[in-house]
User: Fold these one by one.
Assistant:
Number 1:
Amino acid sequence: MLKIPTIKNLEDALLKDSTLDDVRGGKPDTHTPGKRLTANDVRHDIAVLARYLIRVYVGWPVHNDIVKRKVLTRLTKAYKSAHDMTAGELFESMRDVIEQIPDNHISLRFNGVRAGTKSKRKHKDVGKNFAGKLPIKTELRKDGVAIIGFNTMLRTDEFRDAIINFQTNDLPKSKALIIDLRNNGGGSSRYSDDLADFLCGADVDSMKKTYVRTTPEAMKVQAASYPDAPWSKIPASEKLQLWKTGKCFKIDKKKAYMKPIFILTDERTGSSAEMFLLRMVHHPMVTVIGDNSAGMEVYGNMCHGFLPHSNITVSVGMNYRILEYDNFELHGYQPEIKCKDGTNAMDIAIAKLDITKAMLQRKDLIRLNNETRF
C-alpha cells in the first residue's frame, strides 16, 4: 500500500538540497530570461525557493494543510521532473506554485513581471482616484467639503508636509471630509498613520496582534532587506513570536474630527492604505463607499531574497497580523455603500453630503418655525 507523505515528509525532502547559506537577502542586480540552467541548477533553485517559503515566510506556519500540500506537491513535482531550461522558463513554471498561497503580498518577480496569488474576485470600476497621477492631492471646495486623495503612501518630506498643510489650513474650515484611497496599493504607513491618529484624536490601532518569524533564515533575510526592523531584537525561535499587541480601538471624540467622513475604496486599496482604512473605521463619523478593498493586510512588511541560479526575486512578508475581521485576506473590507460597476464613488459621496446638508437645513427650518410660533 502506497503511503501518502506527510507535510513534514514533503518539507524535509525539499529542504535537503539547500542550506542557510543559500538564503540571500536583498534583490539581484539583473534578471536574464535567456540564462541557461542545468537540471541540477533548477533542482537547487526549487529547493531554495522551498526554504524561503518554509523557513522565512511568516505565513507558512499559519496556512492550513490544504494550502501547504498544494504548494509542496507542485514544488516536489517540479523538483523531480527538473530538466535543462532557461531562467525565464523556470519563473513561468513557478507561477502555479505561488498562485496557491492566499496572500496578496507574497510574490515572485522576474524581468518586470510579477507572479502572485490568483484572485477570483471580479473587479468593479468605481472611478479614478481624485489625485490623478499625483501621489497626493488636496482641495477645499466652496461648499466646505475637504478632499484628500492618496495614490500611494509615501515617507517623504513632501508627502508629510502636504498632509500637515491640509490638517492645518483646510480641515478647520471644512464641513465634511472625503478621503480617496482608490487605486492605492500602499507603501509606507508612517505619515498616513499620523493622519489617522489626528482624525481619530487618538493613536488607534489597526490590528489586534502582530507576530514575526525569527528562524535563522528569516533573520538573515530581514538583516539584509530590513536592517532596522523594530522587531529585530526578538529572540531566535522556530515558532512565531508575538511582536506587539494592539491596545487602542476607540477614538477620542473631544479631540477627533467629528464631522462627516467618507472614505473611497476599491479592489486596489491595499497594504498600508488598508492599514489606514482599518484605523479609520473605528471613527463613528466614517462611511466607506466603493468596492471591497484588496484584502492585503494579514501578511506584510516585505523582505526580499533571490534564487542563486535564476536570480528570481522572492518577496515574502515578515509580519503576520490578527485583525478584528475574520477572512480578511483576499476579501478586504466591505464598504457600507457598495457601488455598482461603472459608478463613481466620489459622485455618491458628494450626493450623500448634499442629502445630509438638506436634512440639516430642514431640521434648522423646523426648529426655527417652532421657536417663532406664538
Note: The mean pLDDT is 92.
Number 2:
Amino acid sequence: MPGYRKLGRTSSQRKAMLRNLATQLLYHGKIQTTETRAKEVRRIAEKLITLAVKEKDNFTTVTVTAKVPQKDRDGKRIKVEENGRKVTQYNEVEKDIKKDSPTRLAARRKMLSVLYPVTSTPKPDANGRIRRKRSESKPVDMASLMFDKWAPRYSGRNGGYTRIIKMGPRRGDAAEMVLLELV
C-alpha cells in the first residue's frame, strides 16, 4: 500500500492540486474541500509550518544604505536637468534588512518549491465591488508570510497545526465535505 492517496488523478495533476490547496490554506487560513483531499493537504501544510517554526529566528539583521528616488506629492519621481538630460533625484537611506542564514535560505527555497505564487487583490469598495487594477495587485511573498505570520503563532506547539471539521455530504455526488483550517 502506498504512503499517499492517489485521489483518482495522474501524479502531475495530483501534485498540482495539492500544491494549490496547500497554498490557499496557508494564505487564507482555511479551505473547504473533500475529506480525502484535506487529509493529504494536511500532511503538506504541517511539514511546511514545522519548517517555518524551526527556522523563524535564524537570520541576522544588516544595515545597508540604499538609493531611494525622491517623489512629489502625486508619487511621481522628481527629475532635475543635468548636462542637458533629465535625471532622477535620489536620497540615500539606511535600511535594516534580514539576511537569512544558509539553513533558513534552504527552508525558504523548499517552501517556494511547494507553494504557488500568490497575488493579493484590493479590498471591496463602499458599494461592495472589487475593482481589479493591475497597479493595485501586489505579489505576496509566501515564505515571508510563513516566517512572519504562522511561525510565531505556532512556535510553542509540537505539531497539530490544522483542524478538520466535517460539514456533511456534497449535493452533487455525496462526497464528504470538510473545512480544513489552521488552529
Note: Residues 35-55 form the longest helix (21 residues).
